[in-house]
Design a protein that fits this description.
- This protein has 10 helices and 15 strands.
- The chain has helices at residues 46-50, 125-138, 154-165, 177-185, 200-207, 221-227, 258-267, 277-281, 285-297, 314-321, and strands spanning 2-6, 19-23, 34-42, 71-78, 88-91, 98-101, 107-110, 145-149, 169-174, 191-194, 212-216, 231-239, 271-274, 305-309, 329-333.
- The longest helix has 14 residues, at 125-138.
- It has 2 domains: 2-119 and 303-333, Medium-chain alcohol dehydrogenases, catalytic domain (Quinone Oxidoreductase, Chain A, domain 1, Alpha-Beta Complex); 125-278, NAD(P)-binding Rossmann-like Domain (Rossmann fold, 3-Layer(aba) Sandwich).
- The protein is of the alpha/beta class and 337 residues long.
- Helices cover 27% and strands 24% of the residues.
- The structure holds NADPH dihydro-nicotinamide-adenine-dinucleotide phosphate.
- NADPH dihydro-nicotinamide-adenine-dinucleotide phosphate (NDP) binds next to helix 2, helix 3 and helix 6.
- NADPH dihydro-nicotinamide-adenine-dinucleotide phosphate (NDP) binds at residues 44-46, 125-126, 129, 149-150, 152-156, 174-175, 179, 195, 218-219, 221, 223, 240-241, 243-244, 275-277, 321, 323-324, 326, 330.
């Protein structure tokens, strides 16, 4: 049973040294328990927060414990009357080959799901996050302009495509020309601006000719600086994530912009609201799942995965994601089904 443990807490960007791969004996399920073999492991930006012991909405991973993570697994041994050998499930097994569960908090995915790994992405946590944040907090109206960064990742890509379904103008922001091209040509964004371009703020202003009505906040930092002056009166900002800040060890240098931020919120009557998907919306998962499976069936939503082979690759893939090296939903194939 290979496991990746949190070996030490990162200062700034995580490195390989923060992780340790160990071998342990395969756990044995007792009566009422199941043994789960991990097939797919999801890598998500929130894991950076769990590596840190700063106070947050969730407890950190303890040192020398298995890294947390959503997994799609198969039942290898069952002593539980609700699960049979071979069943697919969604679980939080973390970064390891095997885990034992009493079946609580394990979501069945059936005997033969068409795309089992989708439960970690478009049909799972990131898709649900995009859906609720945009529709419940962003409240986009047809004809409005919606802006989202990390536009080719699982959250941003879904936000942009739902915005189009709702009749909005969708403006993406992504890292590099290839991602921007994909956002426009495949995902259907009206435009996508490269956040790494020298004149990024100017390009964004030129693209948002009618200002910005909904800014779905995934990244913070320089992107938010460029968005702030473009916000329209009564704009909404669902605050979903701040990935540009997750490795930060101090506040950015430069002038204090807090006064400008508060002034904009006041004079433009901006509504800005943070949310944590399962804490705030757990009871609305079915509403999302129904809508999303319908859109997928109708071909209205495209979904891109980046599949990494092998558990031992997880640390590097995760470190890269925080710098934008991933292109699509990052999933590790841990074992063959
Ligand atoms: P992604 O797969 O999109 O990965 C993160 C992306 O962030 C990178 O690919 C990169 O995209 C972008 N990025 C990295 N560094 C920077 C930077 N310095 N400035 C701007 N962009 C940067 O992640 P997800 O779709 O899974 O998650 C998107 C956001 O949603 C994250 O902030 C995450 O924490 C948040 N989230 C929040 C939840 C909640 O409950 N509130 C639940 C799930 C996710 P690019 O190269 O294109 O810029």
């Amino acid at each position: 049973n290979r496991q990746i443990l949190l070996a030490s807490r990162p200062k700034g960007a995580p490195t390989d040294n923060n992780f340790r791969l160990v071998e342990s004996t395969k756990p044995e399920p007792k009566d009422g328990e199941i043994l789960l073999k991990t097939i797919y492991l999801s890598l998500d930006p929130y894991m950076r927060g769990r590596m840190s012991d700063a106070k947050s909405y969730a407890d950190p991973v303890a040192l020398n414990q298995v890294m947390v993570g959503g997994t799609v697994a198969q039942v290898e041994v069952s002593h539980h009357d609700k699960f049979a050998v071979g069943d697919w499930v969604l679980n939080q097994s973390g970064w390891q080959d095997y885990s034992v569960s009493n079946g609580k908090d394990v979501m069945p995915l059936g005997k033969n799901p068409r795309h089992p790994s989708y439960a970690l992405g478009i049909m799972g946590m990131p898709g649900f996050t995009a859906f609720m944040g945009l529709l419940d907090i962003g409240k986009p109206q047809a004809g409005e302009t919606v802006v989202v960064a990390a536009a080719t990742g699982p959250v941003g890509a879904t936000v942009g495509q739902i915005a189009k379904i709702k009749g909005c103008k969708a403006m993406g922001i992504a890292g590099g020309a290839e991602k921007c091209r994909y956002a426009v040509e495949t995902l259907g964004f009206d435009a996508c601006i490269d956040r790494k371009a020298d004149n990024f703020a100017e390009q964004l202003a030129n693209a948002c000719t009618d200002g910005i009505d909904v800014y779905y906040e995934n990244v913070g930092g320089k992107v938010f600086d460029a968005v702030l002056p473009l916000l329209n009166t009564s704009a909404r900002i669902p605050v979903c994530g701040l990935v540009s800040q997750y490795n930060a060890t101090a506040l950015p240098s430069g002038p204090d912009r807090m006064g400008m931020l508060m002034g904009t919120i006041l004079t433009k009557r901006i509504k800005m609201q943070g949310f944590i998907i399962f804490d705030d919306y757990a009871d609305r998962y079915n509403e999302f799942a129904q809508a999303m499976s319908q859109w997928l069936k109708e071909g209205k939503i495209h979904y891109r995965e980046q599949m990494i082979e092998g558990l031992e690759q997880a640390p590097q893939a995760f470190i890269g994601m925080l710098e934008g090296k991933n292109f699509g939903k990052l999933v590790v194939k841990v074992n063959e089904p």
